[in-house]
Amino acid sequence: MLKNLYLDSLEASVKYLRIILKEIAELKLPYTPIVYAVWYEYVSGQNPKLSKNIQAIRKKKELIDYQKVLEWFREYVSDRQVFITEEQTRKAGNLLEGITSRLTEGGNLMERQGDRLKAHIEKLDSASNQPDIKNICRDIVLETHRIIDGNTELKNDIHSTVTELHALKLELENLRKAVKTDLLTGLLNRRGFDDAIEKHMKDAQEQTAPLSLIIADIDRFKRINDNYGHLTGDNVLKLISKLIQRHIKGRDIACRFGGEEFIMALPETKMDGGFALAEQIRTSLEKVRWQSKSSGKDIGTITISLGVAQLIPGEDLNALIARADKALYAAKKNGRNRTGTHNGKEVILP
Predict the structure, then answer these.
(1) Which one from 41, 171, 260, 315 is the annotated catalytic residue?
(2) Most buried of the four, 162, 253, 273, 342, by CB within 10 Å?
(3) What domains, with CATH codes, occur in the chain?
């Protein structure tokens, strides 16, 4: 999906790998996809702004921790996918402009060749002797061959351009998907969520159809990172994302909203349906026993708190999110590992 961002040779990428692993170890950073992506762009020199920032921090001998790397990733790496997409879009536009120009040029050439053929035919009508007729016929044959050759060249040019446009289309589709996807979990990111929910919000308001929202937050996630390391924390995020994906269905959408927070939009679903799904996710998670892959230590149980709200007619997305967030906050404040709901007036905790 990100193949167009990194086009280095095998030899170069192996060289970068050695440098990256050495520097990650020296800085005592976790070996996660996000850290590797940031350091790959830094070491390979593909991202000058990122490189300048990292060099300035290292020169000052300031602490480089996982949080700092996450900031660099969001600011310098994830947005570069948008830049690449725009570049590919411009390239497609240039190809279309080129093929239009080539077709116009080909049309003008065929018109001139047609005029020459017409002139030869008029000469043939008035020719009175065998040598003249023979010469005119020869010119007609030569002009016909030129037309055929010109059309073949034009056809090949168009075929080549169409093939390149098709390849660009596939690349753009992959890049647009990458721009809207959270690299770690594979869920939608905030940009992807905003795009995906726009139509659902419009449909719900116009058709007065129900739409519910769930916000979920992993309980005491910082303690997991502090006690077992960020690599274990990333694995927890990935596994909980898979759990969420197994429970949602149909038109439902799930997003990593930031950090350890997730959001789910459920079209055609009332509050009680949203609450039921939230409880399924919560109870499924609390049954899992966790173990650190790196150390083998028993982590125990990891829980999640959730807030649910149903869209009110005339309400915008920010207001809906705010109500679900209030329900989540109440669940956190009142013991964690529970689901709160907001009915439009107040938070209810079962």
Answers:
(1) 260
(2) 342
(3) 1-179 (1.10.287), 190-348 (3.30.70.270)
